[in-house]
Amino acid sequence: MRRRSDMTFPPEEYERRLSELRERMAARELDAVIITDPENLMYLTDHQTTGYSFFQALIVPLESDSVMITRALEESNVIARTWLEHSRAYPDTGDAILELVSTLRDLRLGDSRVGYERNSYYFPAYQQDRFHDAFGEGLVDCFGIVEEGRIRKSPEEIEVMQLAAYAGEAGMVAGQRAAMAGATENDVAAAISAAMFRAGGEFPAVMPYVASGPRSMIGHSTWEGRMIRPGEHVFLEVGGCYRRYHAAMMRTVVNGALSDSMRSAQDLMKHTLAELRSFMKPGVSISEVDRLTRSLIESNDVGAQLVTRAGYSIGIAFPPSWDEGYIVSLNEGDERPLEEGMTFHLIPWMWGVDGDKTVGISDTVRITADGCASFLTLPEDFVVHESGARAFPTVAPITSSTL
């Protein structure tokens, strides 16, 4: 296996991943698999592009060399970024599915048992239907076969996630400083993004969430130019990214004095995270983690709820989401045990404090041989700006007349 100068990990890391995948293929009696999920392609080969809306697929035979099917423009990424020796490119006027079927037949896999990711976002139903019609019998859904390896991060992956955490923390600190009365949500988002990128971070799968005052009660709302007013809080969620690996965090900023209910919410979330870090270790079930989180947060006396899962696996991600929750989410009823190398974004956040505020403190953690450790060093307390409004330069907002 060759190494490109721009590859994230040494060849040995990819050799291990490919070897373990083939062991799972053999156990399922698969002669080859077709991988189309961008995160899985990155995991196996280091391939990445923002052009993943065009069909791309990695054919991994059980015994012979792997081959990438890609749009002609994107083949440059295969050559420059990956260890792959073989690729087949189709033009924009070409037919990607016919190219896939032709390549399988050239590899003498036309009558073989071939797995494909039936639940991949980027292998839509109409293409799958054409693939079935053109290829015939022998297709087997192997969704999750790569994710079985991704769920446990190697020491090398942990190191890259630590760099993502560093970038995310740099952005969060900048956002906390900027989130003062008189600033707009756009000012805050700009500060976060600039700081993350200057710290070595790359574009995250989701840009920062910045929601001030009543807008914090709207799920997944982010900056829209609203000016932060005196006395208002600002909910921030930032995902740092490095080499497509992510580490995420929630924090809260308060403008004005910290009320009793906000202090209570802050202290309960901090306590919950501390309890989770003490509790989580190999052998503890996912369901137990959810129950502990939910029981603590729902004991609050400020009218808040935990309206979502307690957390989710996190690692490689492309837009539109930075989480690996489809692999593992911290939900009730999942009795799978935690294992060393698993990484999670823990989100014991609180929706509806005093009936009209969402606040959050979260952590990205890794499961160690005998416990749990955080990737983050950023203080968890709410940042409180008590001195009033901050003067920001006036910038004309974007309106329909300026577009």
Word description of this protein:
The chain is α/β, with parallel strands linked by helices. The chain has two domains: 140 residues, Creatinase/prolidase N-terminal domain (Creatine Amidinohydrolase, Chain A, domain 1), CATH 3.40.350.10; 231 residues, Creatinase/methionine aminopeptidase superfamily (Creatine Amidinohydrolase), CATH 3.90.230. Helix content is 32%, strand content 18%. The chain has ten helices and 16 strands. The strands form four sheets. A six-stranded mixed sheet has the order 4-3-2-1-5-6. The chain has a four-stranded mixed sheet with strand order 7-8-9-16. A four-stranded antiparallel sheet has the order 10-11-14-15, covered by helices on one side. Strand 5, helix 5 and strand 6 form a beta-alpha-beta unit. The protein is elongated. The C terminus is likely disordered.
Average pLDDT works out at 94
Give the tally of β-strands: 16
The residue fraction in helices comes out at 25-40%
- The span between the termini is 50 Å
CATH-defined topology of the largest domain = Creatine Amidinohydrolase
CATH superfamily of the largest domain: Creatinase/methionine aminopeptidase superfamily
Number of helices: 10
Order of H and E elements: HEHEEHEHEHEHHHEEEHHEEEEEEE
> Per DSSP, what share of the residues sits in E-state strands of 2 or more residues?
15-25%
CATH architecture annotation name of the largest domain:
Alpha-Beta Complex
Number of domains: 2
The CATH class of the largest domain is Alpha Beta
Order of strands across the main sheet: 4-3-2-1-5-6
Can you tell me the residue ranges where pLDDT is under 50 for at least 5 consecutive residues? 391-403
InterPro entries: Creatin/AminoP/Spt16_N, Creatinase/aminopeptidase-like, Creatinase_N, Pept_M24, Peptidase_M24B
Protein name: Xaa-Pro aminopeptidase
Domain Peptidase M24: 160-369
Organism: Brachybacterium faecium (strain ATCC 43885 / DSM 4810 / JCM 11609 / LMG 19847 / NBRC 14762 / NCIMB 9860 / 6-10)
